[in-house]
Amino acid sequence: MNKSDLILKILESEPTLFKKDATKIVNVFFDTISNAIAKGERVELRGFGVFDVKKREARIARNPKNGDVVAVPAKKVPFFRMGKDMKDRINK
Length: 92
Description:
With 92 residues, this protein is α+β, with helices and mostly antiparallel strands.
């Protein structure tokens, strides 16, 4: 499912809502989560999961093309951990 599909699902469940309003709702939702993660905050949606930021330490790696040693700097990466209720729904 992509963002457009999500907007259509919202419109199906709420037929009185205009498409531009549903689009705005979805955009605000994702922007809020994105901004919180960018600030390093944890976002928890009960029954769905947790969006968080993990720190990856600096390391030494190899370039697969030529085998040269490359230094990979430390970085932060977005991370999603599925909630128990979601796991249960998937594994039924």
